[in-house]
Amino acid sequence: MKILISADMEGATGVTWPADVLPGTPQWERCRSMFTSDVNAAVLGFFDGGADEVLVNEAHWTMRNLLLEQLDERAEMLTAGTSPSP
């Protein structure tokens, strides 16, 4: 089974205010870690559920919000310019 996760920072754990998703703010730095943890929880759940492949598409603004060094190494990451979105 192949899974595609399209993750957007709005709605992630701890995001309650516009500044939480605005690059460069202290709140954004804090929320990036929680956003990455949320994506990792989904990746873990999909692999535990039998997925063979999990592809992550970051869908928030500049697509540079996930902390790639903390992303589950089993996940494949799409980078800016390669989004499958129409």
UniProtKB/TrEMBL annotation:
It holds the Pfam family Peptidase_M55. It comes from the Bacteria. This is Peptide ABC transporter substrate-binding protein. The gene is dppA1.
